[in-house]
Amino acid sequence: MKLSEIAAALDARVEGDETIMIRRAVHPSEAEGPEDLALAMDKDLLALLPGSKAVAVVVAEGAELPPELTGIIRGRIVVKRPRYAMAGLLDVFEKPVHAEPGIHPQAYVAPDAVVAEDASVAPFAYIGPRARIGAGAVVLPHVTVGADAVIGEGSLLHPGARIGERVVLGARCIIHPNAAVGNDGFSFVTPEPGSVESAKTTGRVVGTNVLLRRVNSIGTVILGDDVEIGAGATIDRGTVTATRIGNGTKIDNLVQIGHNVQIGTNCMLCGHVGVAGSTVIGDRVVLAGKVGVADHVKIGSDAVVAANSGVGTDIPAKSVYMGYPAVPRARAFEQYKGLARLKRLFADVVDLKARLHAVDGQGKAPAKPVVAEQD
Amino acid sequence: MKLSEIAAALDARVEGDETIMIRRAVHPSEAEGPEDLALAMDKDLLALLPGSKAVAVVVAEGAELPPELTGIIRGRIVVKRPRYAMAGLLDVFEKPVHAEPGIHPQAYVAPDAVVAEDASVAPFAYIGPRARIGAGAVVLPHVTVGADAVIGEGSLLHPGARIGERVVLGARCIIHPNAAVGNDGFSFVTPEPGSVESAKTTGRVVGTNVLLRRVNSIGTVILGDDVEIGAGATIDRGTVTATRIGNGTKIDNLVQIGHNVQIGTNCMLCGHVGVAGSTVIGDRVVLAGKVGVADHVKIGSDAVVAANSGVGTDIPAKSVYMGYPAVPRARAFEQYKGLARLKRLFADVVDLKARLHAVDGQGKAPAKPVVAEQD
Amino acid sequence: MKLSEIAAALDARVEGDETIMIRRAVHPSEAEGPEDLALAMDKDLLALLPGSKAVAVVVAEGAELPPELTGIIRGRIVVKRPRYAMAGLLDVFEKPVHAEPGIHPQAYVAPDAVVAEDASVAPFAYIGPRARIGAGAVVLPHVTVGADAVIGEGSLLHPGARIGERVVLGARCIIHPNAAVGNDGFSFVTPEPGSVESAKTTGRVVGTNVLLRRVNSIGTVILGDDVEIGAGATIDRGTVTATRIGNGTKIDNLVQIGHNVQIGTNCMLCGHVGVAGSTVIGDRVVLAGKVGVADHVKIGSDAVVAANSGVGTDIPAKSVYMGYPAVPRARAFEQYKGLARLKRLFADVVDLKARLHAVDGQGKAPAKPVVAEQD
Questions:
Q1: Structure confidence at residue C234 as a pLDDT band (50, 70, 90)
Q2: The complex's ipTM?
Q3: Contacts 24+ apart (CB under 8 A), A238-243
Q4: pLDDT tens digits for C58-75?
Q5: Residue B214's CB: how many other CB atoms inside 10 A?
Q6: Within chain C, which residue ranges are assigned CATH 3.40.1390.10?
Q7: Exposed (0-12), middle (13-18) or buried (19+): which is A200, by Cβ within 10 Å?
């Protein structure tokens, strides 16, 4: 591909020789010659160019090439928003996963399952009774598609993905390795009110959970279009109706979504996020890594929750929350600042007591002579 | 099924026409006609009924149907403890997973494994040497049962479950998709005391971990009867003896149980809980989502630990703990309250300093005139 | 094996009869006779010996056998560093996983894949196009090895391990059940600056993530020699170059490693640790259970981070950090101490206000008569 063609795909401009033929996009340290396009869209990467064999590069608008590279870098693509340009570049140089057309003879497809003609079903994939695999969908090795599940067109199921019975995936979903969609909810009930019920209301354990009776899940999971579920993530089915994840929402590795949860469109839930049962999350919400969200809470659209936070209450739209328990970001920062200055505050109060004792003779006399601290 | 029959199964009473024939249990918004029994056992669900096509409903004792439904709702089941009734309802309307009797020709069963006649072994299931699969057990696609493992009668192994060698499951266990039971413990030792040992004792890093020698696990995992292990959860085997999980204990998705851990009966460990090696957990303990428990601690029976807490010390029986580090709940609330009021406390102390300066002339003069705050 | 031979393997000495023939190493409570070597290298285990049928034992240097065991325990191995001796003992008594030599007929091996002659490939293992399996490597059931992946000699892939395309494993790596190495990075970009960018810089949500554009991952994962990846752990591939994990590093269950992360040698990352994209971790670093590390930070060699901590900034070499946000350990302890004494501090300030009011007449009069507290 010519440098000019790549630039056109990115809606960017070329400086220098736009006819250079490119074969790969690489990290500057891995450039081996003129066919390698070195990606140097930030300062750190730019600084690696002098030691690189790069001849063609991608740089950010306004970036200055080190002067010693004059004459060595023969062509460069100049982009405006580097992170966005990166997405475009990696579309151009994508390395799609290996998949052969048709149903492999070592796959299992139930006699009454329906697999679109141009779909790909790999060795050791299992397609259950009455399941439907849409046009262009790719089912990689060791994937399980349960009975009556529906896989939308163009979806990609990575090795070890588990799609439970009756689960519905929209178009172009990507389910990463070993993700499990459609597990039974974690729902048990005690004949009499148990320890958790009393702990929540009274703060003490009154009843005991002598028996845990299972609440079966007869609902399902419905994913919209363009949803991604990360490696090892787990999405539980609804108790009676469906757990739903809206169009364009991206869920990272090892995330846990409880039964009956409703998630809107274009959300991002990062690694190890956990959302307990029946919680409702709006559109475009971002939950950073390891955020935990309690059951039955509501998170408004466009809210952002910082990493490691524990959300126990509703969160308004467009707000930024953090901490455990999560509070508005400004308040959390105030608390951290307070914590960091706490030692000094204790010293101040000791000093005030001593000085006040000198004035009113009350309280305990100071252990050492009073020297007012100067702050 | 007649409405009266369903009510009988729940030990509940019917009001109205008890002869209505029911085919499905549904969310009120999904009721399509007289054959759909709408579950409306809380206020939110009740409020959905006027917009629903429901004719038969389940409601909680004391619930008032909206007046406009008179004549439309023809029969209702009235239940006392809604969550418990839900369990009964979902037993009646359970949708059991698809499983065919016998060993599928595309399964692998070692010649010396023993599979009960009425057990089900799906395509691509692997049963290792000398493993034993009990009566009525269901082994779904892509399950691995290692050599010498024992699966108790009526147990259900979901797709991708990994049962390690020599692991023993009691009766009626459910292992959810991609759970792994019987992994090697995470146990390594340095020739000389390493960084962790010095960090724990001195707070500083003295030794360095120049080499990590593996401590092999020759123990196993033993699960009691009616144990559930959630999707993607990982249970490590004991070093020399067994990691044990008692009868009726339920473990949620993505939980990690370390080597040698001993867990009692009827416990509930929620999503993302992590329990480090050799910790001992009593009976009926509840660990809410994301709780972390250090190694070698003891948690007494009936204790409840709130979500996101980090437990580093023993916890007494029947106590409620929370926070990081976890402390009794009342103390944790006190700390959160204190944190929230910290900003005000700092202001108070600044004010006290200024006023005391006016009295004793010591310390620094206030930056602005003293105005006593009124609280 | 003779007791003396075992002692020789541990570089330890025998007291008593060194000719006892040993068949198993067991927990004291599980000793059944003279062929069982009871491991009693700490006080708790030692205390179990009187109720045990043990005849041969391993004890720590300086341990006193209970006097009633004289004449019953006929031989004992005495070790200096028990945890290290344990590693040696479990090497002697290791129970290696079942694996048959050669490629099982129910495996799938792509025609152009290369499997070393003495490697083992189990039923339902999948070896993709051009993949290479090194000498002595063991590929257990349900493992996926993607196209062009390289498995180093002597590596062991447990059931359900997913090795993505182009991923490279060094020698003697162990990939535990259902671990997934080489998943796509979690990387999306909005056409215009989105909510996270504004939340980080201004603390408020300005832009909204109307569209999340995928940033494809064309990089890979490279593991050094002797690396272990725990059950259910997920390691994402680099965006352009490789995510790297150095020789001897051990990663526990359910750990998540983001794209482009660089980890040095001999590190230990415990259960549920999460490391976000592009972070750089030195050598011999220890991250305890549930630690979260933000993206693009640097953790120096030999640093130790305590369980449940959230790391948002660089951490110097050889330091011990803890808390959320993580700070040096001494400072964290100071903060916890402060938090625990906060209630008292509030009371002190109330008291000071009341006493100062008595002196200067300012502020609010105390609600009750001033009684100076005696501390």
A1: very high
A2: 0.94
A3: A238/A185, A239/A185, A239/A187, A239/A215, A239/B86, A239/B90, A240/B25, A240/B26, A240/B27, A240/B39, A240/B90, A241/B26, A241/B27, A241/B29, A241/B30, A243/A219
A4: 999 999 888 888 889 999
A5: 19
A6: 3-92
A7: exposed
Which residues 77-96 of B have a C-beta within 8 angstroms of C? none
Does the annotation count B259 as an active-site position?
Answer: yes
For residue B308, give the nearest of A256, A310, A335 by CB distance.
A310
pTM for the full model?
A: 0.95
Measured distance CA(B330)–CA(C92) in Å, rounded: 51
Positions of A marked active-site: 259
Query: Topology of domain A102-328, per CATH?
Result: UDP N-Acetylglucosamine Acyltransferase; domain 1 (2.160.10)
Confidence category of residue A374, pLDDT binned at 50, 70, 90: very low
Which of C318, C324, C359 has the CB atom closest to B205's CB atom? Answer: C318
> Do A284 and C209 lie within an 8 Å CB cutoff?
yes
Torsion of CA C321, C323, C327, C328, to 10 degrees: -40
* pLDDT band with cut points at 50, 70 and 90 for residue A145: very high
Tell me the C-alpha distance between C58 and C24, whole Å.
Answer: 12
Rounded mean pLDDT, C204-225 = 93
Does any CB of chain C come closer than 8 Å to the CB of residue B347? no
The winner for highest mean pLDDT among A354-363, B139-148, B344-353 is B139-148
Chain A within 8 Å of B186 (Cβ-Cβ)? Answer: no
| CB of B347 less than 8 A from some CB of A | no
* For range B203-226, the mean pLDDT: 93
Instruction: Identify the chains in contact with C, defined as 3+ C-beta pairs within 8 A.
Output: A, B
Options C98, C259, C272, C296, the catalytic residue: C259
Spatial separation of the C-alpha atoms in residues C69 and A261, rounded to whole Å = 60
- Look at residue B9 and give its three-state secondary structure: helix
Cβ–Cβ gap C128/A98 under 8 Å? yes
Q: Is the pLDDT of residue B99 over 80?
A: yes
In this complex, do A199 and B320 lie within 8 Å of one another by their Cβ atoms?
yes
Nearest CA in chain A to B105: A108
Mean pLDDT across A121-125: 98
Rounded to 5 degrees, φ, ψ at A275 are -120, 120
Nearest to C324 among A29, A324, A360 (CB): A324
Most confident stretch, B333-342, B360-369, C39-48, C230-239? C230-239
pLDDT digits (tens, 9 = 90+) for A77-98: 999 989 899 999 999 999 999 9
In chain C, CATH 2.160.10.10 sits at 102-328
CB contact under 8 A, B248 and A341: no
pLDDT value of residue A91: 94
Within 8 A by CB and 6+ apart from C315, the residues are C297, C298, C299, C300, C303, C305, C321, C326
Q: Is A202 exposed, middle or buried (0-12, 13-18, 19+ CB in 10 A)?
A: exposed
CB–CB of B180 and C27 under 8 A? no
Residues in A closer than 8 angstroms to B352, CB to CB, are 352
Interface test with A, best of B11, B93, B265, B362 (most A CBs within 10 A): B362
**With an 8 Å Cβ cutoff, are B203 and C231 in contact?**
no
Nearest residue on chain C to A25, alpha-carbon basis: C240
Neighbours of chain A (3+ CB pairs under 8 A): B, C
Percent of chain B with pLDDT over 90: 84
Give the fold, CATH level 3, of B3-92. Answer: 3.40.1390
| Structure confidence at residue B371 as a pLDDT band (50, 70, 90) | very low
CB contacts, 8 Å: B108 with chain C: 106, 123-124, 141
Is C190's pLDDT higher than 70? yes
Q: Which of A190-194, B263-267, B268-272 has the lowest mean pLDDT?
A: A190-194
